[in-house]
Write a structure and sequence with these properties.
Helix content: 25-40%
Distance between the termini: 35 Å
Strand content: 5-15%
Number of helices: 1
Number of strands: 2
Largest sheet: 2 strands, antiparallel
Order of helices and strands: EEH
Radius of gyration: 15 Å
Amino acid sequence: MVNNGETELNPDYTLNNTKILCNRCKVYYQPDKKDISRKNPNVYNKWCQRCRDYQFQKNLIHRYKKNNE
């Protein structure tokens, strides 16, 4: 979902920012190339890498439990 100019980008997560506040853990982090959003490559992700990894593991555990009940 690339922004084609239909709506304005959130200025807190655009690529010209040097520090980003994670929406989940509320910690500032230095964005890197891996933090660029895949849905909209004009902005960074709103969660830091640690929060994204945590949520991914949580989803895997939930999916495993759901399939093995």
